[in-house]
Amino acid sequence: DSGVTQTPKHLITATGQRVTLRCSPRSGDLSVYWYQQSLDQGLQFLIQYYNGEERAKGNILERFSAQQFPDLHSELNLSSLELGDSALYFCASSPEGGGIQETQYFGPGTRLLVL
Amino acid sequence: QQPVQSPQAVILREGEDAVINCSSSKALYSVHWYRQKHGEAPVFLMILLKGGEQKGHEKISASFNEKKQQSSLYLTASQLSYSGTYFCGTVNSGGGADGLTFGKGTHLIIQP
User: Fold this and answer.
1) Tens-of-pLDDT digits for all 112 residues of chain B?
2) How near does any CA of chain A get to the CA of B54, in Å?
3) Which residues of B touch A90 (CB under 8 A)?
4) How many CB atoms sit inside 10 A of residue A12's CB?
C-alpha cells in the first residue's frame, strides 16, 4: 500500500458524458501526478500539480482538466468522453516538486470504461 | 521521447537471471524503475541518477550509463514473485518538475 488513495475504483459511463476522478496523496506529499494507462498508448504522463499550482503538463487532452485543492487532494475531470478514453487512470504523489531524484508513489488507479 | 525497453518479454525458470534494458535517444538525468502486476499500481523499485552508480537491494540491482543513455535492471536468482511488467521511467530535463516518460514495458514471467 503506497498511501495514495483513489476513488472510485471503477467507473462505467457513456460517450459524451463527464466524470471526475479523485486522488488523495500520501500524507505530507505536495505533488500530485496523473497518468493514463491504455493498451495502445502505454503509461502516459498527463499533468502534475505542486502545492495547488500546475507544475508540468504532458499529453493531456483539452477535454481533460485537473486541479489540486488546499488540502492537497486532486481531481481529474474528463469531459465529452470518447470510447478511446477507456483506460486505467493513476494518480501518483511525491514529497516535493518532483524532479530527477524524487520517487513517485502510485495509487491503485481508477478503471474507466466508456460505452 | 519514449525510452525503448528490451526485451519486450522474457520467460524464465525460477532461479534464473534476467537483464532488462532501457535506452533513450535524449540525454538522461535519471531513470526510475517500477514493477507492475496485472491490474495493479506500478510499484517503485529504484532510482538511478547520473554518475553511473549501480544501486540495488536484495537480488534486484540496476546500472545507469549516462554516456550510452541507457540503464539496465538485473534480476538475480529470480523468484516467482518477480513476475510482472517492468517499466523504466526517464527524466530528460534537469530543471526539476517533470512527469516520468515510461517505456512500453518488459513482461517477465517466472515459471516454477
Assistant:
1) 789 999 999 999 999 999 999 999 888 888 999 999 998 999 999 988 876 666 666 788 998 888 888 999 999 989 999 999 999 999 876 655 568 899 999 999 999 9
2) 15
3) 41-42
4) 12
